[in-house]
Structure formats: structure tokens, C-alpha cells
Amino acid sequence: MAIDRVITFLDAHRSVFEEQLKTLLRIPSVSAQSERDNDTRAAAEFVRKDLATIGLNEVALIETKRHPLVYAEWLDAPGQPTILIYGHYDVQPAEPLEPWNQPDPFEPVIRDGNIYARGATDDKGQMFTHLKALEGWMKTVGSLPINVKVLIEGEEEIGGKNLEIFVAENREKLACDYVVISDTSQFALGLPAITYGLKGLAYFELIVHGAKTDLHSGMFGGAVANPLNVLATILASLMGPDGKVRIEGFYDPVRPLLDWERADFAKLPFSEAEFQAKLGVTSLVGEEGYTTLERKWARPTCDVHGLYGGYSGEGPKTVLPCKAGAKLSFRLVPDQDPLAVAEQFKAHVAKVCPPGVTYEIKEHHGAPAVLVGVDSPGVHAAVRAIEAGFGTRPIFMREGGSIPVVGLFKTQLGVDTLLLGWGQDDDNLHGPNEKFSLDDFHRGIKASAHLLAEFTRD
Amino acid sequence: MAIDRVITFLDAHRSVFEEQLKTLLRIPSVSAQSERDNDTRAAAEFVRKDLATIGLNEVALIETKRHPLVYAEWLDAPGQPTILIYGHYDVQPAEPLEPWNQPDPFEPVIRDGNIYARGATDDKGQMFTHLKALEGWMKTVGSLPINVKVLIEGEEEIGGKNLEIFVAENREKLACDYVVISDTSQFALGLPAITYGLKGLAYFELIVHGAKTDLHSGMFGGAVANPLNVLATILASLMGPDGKVRIEGFYDPVRPLLDWERADFAKLPFSEAEFQAKLGVTSLVGEEGYTTLERKWARPTCDVHGLYGGYSGEGPKTVLPCKAGAKLSFRLVPDQDPLAVAEQFKAHVAKVCPPGVTYEIKEHHGAPAVLVGVDSPGVHAAVRAIEAGFGTRPIFMREGGSIPVVGLFKTQLGVDTLLLGWGQDDDNLHGPNEKFSLDDFHRGIKASAHLLAEFTRD
After folding, report:
1. Which CATH number is A348's domain given?
2. In whole angstroms, how far apart are CA A259 and each of A171, A244, A294, B313?
3. pLDDT tens-digit profile of B127-172?
4. Least Cα separation, residue A157 to chain B (angstroms)
5. Most buried of the four, A246, A378, A422, B61, by CB within 10 Å?
6. Minimal-distance CA residue of chain A relative to B426
7. pLDDT tens string B84-121
8. The pTM of the whole model exceeds 0.95
9. Is residue B290 part of a domain?
């Protein structure tokens, strides 16, 4: 059978694929840092070249106002379905650098069967599995069993708007039956999963301004508002000790967990004690009335991502700073609307902000949550492909992360996305020592190769 | 009269003194920054040389475990009182640099009669007035009318312990009738003041630790405590919307303002509206039931000086950080004990800190508040000297700043300190664009020269 020849090819090229992945990981394509713009472009160029070498058609770098898109297609399977493979070549900033166990997060290190580097799992390593699966088919069979479109972007980590613009302007070009994305995690080692739900996101930066200049806290303290104290007061008001967000109207549209979901989640092999020990926290906390999995997957949250203001250098300094800021976000669940949450957040800050300061709120990016039906031909094909690639049947799970494009593809192309994650939940994506299992890398490639076959119509 | 010759000399040397001050200000003697240690020593050396050139005796750099002390004395006025002039040659960090209106805070700029530089008023410029007054006497009369000891340190801005050790070990050598310090402000332009009260200080750094590594806020948010959210919660708990510190026992030892103080403060030409406009704040805030001057001078406060943790670079990053920190201090009034406040603060944090995190509290430095009696021969001499130097009679005020040495001299030497401040309250000490009025510089020199004469006994 054709698939057997493909798998033989994939097995024979394991080390070639690993070296190619290393080369891609060496490119510090941090989309958030404008001084890295050339590197970000270099990563796009790498992906474009790889797609051209594989033998896809219409391979192109598509310019945008910021980072380019990479597009390719192979549409020579008339009567067969079409999938759109989406991924991103940009990565999160690697900072802070000290906690990394390697000198350079962009010089991959292999240890205990994992490849360590910024972007290893999110999303370079996972995205690359699909390219290698396409290569397997093209280099052996010389064709693909279904029609495939590939769209790889470079602004995922900054919530850039250029993909959205491109998709909206190219709905016909991108038409497909399903989108396939590998940018999530398996449930656990040896427990691959199909992710049918994602949280949404509403991300803000809150900047509080006090006096027009920094002041001496002895001479002025107690007489004027301190933006740092005020910022703490506002941030503390966002969540109660019961773990609930205290913003008016925030929970109104929240869709409750269904009975089957709570029952299925409870059956999963998940130990709260092991989870706690792995993270090294003294206890697990969160919204009252929910299990850890329910909190992670299906309840909205509020996290501060960064605090800045005043003096944080060596030694004490008794300054009363004129400015303080925080980056924070809300993770959303169906059917919360990020725009409505932005309005609720702004109204809340207006209500709780004490006098004596001004503030500004920057809205970084937002996306609604996603829920995909689990009973469809595409989901069934994915179940069979993962079983073939990983040797075990996938479970169904939800995810706390946000992949805004899933909502975009639903809205613009009218299609569901299959979230086939090859990562592990301790892969440290967005943190130091990000990694990706090389076994999962190769199993992912195989599952993707099988997926193309499983999608064929008789 | 001798004093007339001195004053003539001082008038003739205005530009010489200004150039010397500039040279001193060019030395970036930031005691908190260890990479500046050589500069800090260079400032000490500058002061030592100046005292030697003036003609004082026993001029010496005294080594400590960190920054050296400078000592000098002139004790050839038998039967006359002895004063100890104290000052400091170290300065606050100049950061942040952007708000400065000059490229280098250590390259003095003269504008509108003010000299702008880090340390201009705190305390290089003010400290230097006394050296120039001594020079005036020595270079004209050839002697001083009273006995003088000079002790200039380099760890004032970091609350270093080495001055304390030296004073405790040299009580006999430093014996005097009064300490004289110029490290405070006048009440306003043309309204010189004697400061009879200072606030104390208790300074802490609070560091909150969560998981053992940074996490992805989507995958882990809502399931583990976020140190940044927790830090905000703890900081917000320190003060109520009424401006009162909400730590148990904090106010118990607070000595209430006396009726004469409230009456005198109320008579001072102080416009809350002008104060507000000068600072550029939308309103003045503070502890309910007190005027702005009362809050500034005589009520305890709590200010956060710095916040750090997570990502504060360009663009959004959805990290759930493993660590967050804050620098904060309480300004204290009589009779609050900094050690007792430290215990109260620690007990408070232990009480309000939510589960799921650990924390550490670093104690930076502390000092009790000070009140000096206003009816003594030394205060009377200072009133006459300031009237002679500034042409107007000083008022009595308190100050929100902390000068820990005042308590040290009281405890170790048993003497009161005369706080004769030549600065202005908009001199931006500790902030960007620190300045010192050159008129005040020269009036301060004259007042100091008069002070030596006014102290003589018949």
C-alpha cells in the first residue's frame, strides 16, 4: 500500500528531519521584538524553501504590513476533500534567559529524548510534522491522496491582524473541508488527544499615571496617590479569594460544563497531587466548586503577566514613581465575547480606580473561545490517523490556551478545525526550557501522513 | 568685624565655589550600585582634599567595609562650643534616565539660576555650603570662632551601617554640643526653615514565589496561584481607601499632632491647589481627617517604590510568571519603632497571603522618627544665622523625609541635631532633573558662616 512506502521513507529520514528542525529552531523568529524582524523573515523563508523542495505548488511568501505569510497548495486530487494545514513560524520571546539550562535558547540541545529550544513545541516542531508528512508522500508516491493547502504565519504570538486580513480577502483561495492545526498538547505521555475546545483571550495593558515626575516618597508620600499602590489596588480587585473574577457581568454568558464533560474529565488519569508536585507549588488554587481540569479547560481566568514601575534595581530607593503598569489577560470560555469583556474590564477599572491618578488601557488582542463538535467525518479520520501514528486511540479534551485562528477559520471559511496536538503539558511553551519530545515529533509526522490517507473518499 | 571679612571673601568666590561644586557633581557616586564603587570613593577623596585645602586638621579618609567616611576637625577655640557638621557625598541612582532634560545627570547644567544634576541638592550642594563657610573663615580670619568637627559619609542613600559602627566606636572623638545638617528643604522660596521633626522609615522587599518555573497562562492559569496577582492582593491590603495603613497595631504608638503644631501649620502660606498643580495630579489624596501638610510631615504612610515580575517588554506575552517582587516602605512618626513595624508587617503578610505561594521579606533599613525641641541656645543661634544669611527669619517645620543619623547622634552622642535645609521642595531629589538653586547655595554658605559666629559664647 502507498502509506506503507510513505512510513518506510519517514523512518529512514528521522535524523534528516531532526537536523532540519534544528536549523529552523536556530532562527530567533521572535515576532514581538522588532529588532528580530530579519530573523522572523528568515524563518518564513526557511518554511517557503522547504515547501518548494517538497514539491508543492504555488509556494509563496506573501508580504503583509509586518511579518510575511507562507502559502503553498497541492490540488491535484479531484473529487477528494481539501484540508488546510495551519501553523506558525514565530515564537515567544526567550527572556528571561537565566532559568534556561542552556546558554542560548536558539541553539537546540537534545537531552533525554527531547529537543530543547524556544519554539521546539510552539509551534515550529509541531508545524514541521505536517511538512515532513507531505514530503513523505511526495517523495515516495509522488502525489498526495487528498487536496492540501498550507498556510504558515508569523504573528501568532503577537496576535497580529495580518492573517485575519489575508483570510478575509482570500476566502475562495483558502476554501477547504477542515483546517488541521498541531499547536496543542497530548493529554499525557502516551495519551494523544483531540482538542475539541479552546479558551478565548482578552489581553490588556493597564498603565497608571500619577504626578508628572517621580517624587521623593518622604517629601510627598501620603499626600499624593502612588501609581504603584493604585495599580495593586486595581489588580487585586479583579479576583476574589474564591478564585472568581469580580467584574460585573463577566460570568453572565458563560456556558456551563455539560454533565458528560464533567464525567469524562473525571475519568481521565489525572492526579492533582502529581500535578502539584510537578509544578512545585505548595497547593493548587482556583475557582471554588471546580476540579483542576475543569478550571484549566473550561472556566474563565484572570492572570497578570507582567508588572513594572519604579525602581527594581539593586538596593533600596525611596522613590514615589509617576507611573506603573501591568500586562494582564482574561482567558475566556464559550460564549464570552472578548469585546464585551473589554468593555466590562474598562467599566470595572473606571469604578474601582481611586482618585488622584489617571490611567490608560491598551487592548492587545482578543479571541473568543471555541468548541468543535466531536462527531464528524473529519474527527473520525483524525481518530484513526492518530491511532495509527501513535499506536493508541486519542481521548477528547479541552485546552486552556487560545488559538484565535480557529475562530477566524470558522467565521471566514465556515469550517471546523481539527486540533491535533503532539506536545506535552510540561513542554514549557512560553517559559524557559521549552522542549518537544523527538518521539512525539516522529509519531506526529506519521499520524499526519496517515491523516492524508484517512481523509480520502472512496 | 571678622564676619564681614568672611562675607566679603564668600561674595568674591561665588564662581569659584560653583565650579568646585560642578566638579563634585560630575562624580557619579551612586552608593547603591557596586559598579560605581570607584566613583563613590572618588567623591570621598574630593571632599577629603577640599577639607585639607581649607586648612582643617586630622583630615582623613576612614575606611569601612564599604564606602569610606571623611573626617576632619578644628579644635583650637578653647572655651567655645563644638559643632559636628554631618553630610553625605553619595547620591541616589539617576535612573530612569529618559525623563532628564539633559543627556547626562552627572554633567551639571545651569538653567534659570538652578544647577541641575543628580546630587545637586541631596546632598552634595547642601553639604558643600558648610565646607565653603569654613573656608571663608580660615582664608580670611585664619581661625574658626568655635570648635568644628566634620563627618561626611557615603552610605546615606543605602542606609549603610558603617557610619553607625563608626559613631558607636568613636563617641568621645565625635563629642559635640550640636550636630548641624543641611539635607532638607526650606518651606518655600524665600521662606527658610528649621526642621524640628523628621519621619522614620521601615523599608522592605517582598518577593512572592509560585511554581518552580514560568508557565503558560492558558495551560495553567486558574489552576495555580499567580505570584503577580498575589503580590497585588498583598500590596492592596496594606492601605484602605481612607488612606490609613491597615496593619494591626500600626497606629497604636503614633503620637498625635499637638494643637500648636496644627495651628502653626495651618498659618503657613501653603496652597493645596498650587501644590496639586505643581505636581500635575488630578487631585490630592491621603489619610482622611488631615491636611496635606499634616499628612506630609506628621502622619505615617505606606508607599510602593518598585514592582517587578513577568514580562514587561514590547508586545503581549501570556506568561504565568513564577516570581514577583515589590519594594515598599512605611514612613514612621514618633513613637513608632521600625523593628516593631517590621514585625507587624511580617505578621500582616502572613495573615493576608493567599495559599499556593511562598514569599520572602527582605528588610532593607529602618530608622525611628525624630522630634527636636525648638527652644534651645543652638536653635536660637540657628535662627539668627539664617536670618543673617537669607535675610528673613526662618519658620519651624517638620519633614516627611528620614535622616536616620539624627536618631543615631541623639542615641550615641546625646545631642540634638539642627536641621538647616537650604533646598526647595521641588528640587526633585531622588527623581529626574534634581536641582539646587545657586542663590540658595550662596545664601546657605553665608548662613553657615554666620552660624559659626552666632554659636560663640561671650
Report:
1. 3.30.70.360
2. 37, 21, 12, 42
3. 999 999 999 999 999 999 999 999 999 999 998 899 999 999 999 9
4. 8
5. A422
6. A215
7. 999 999 999 999 999 999 999 999 999 999 999 999 99
8. no
9. no
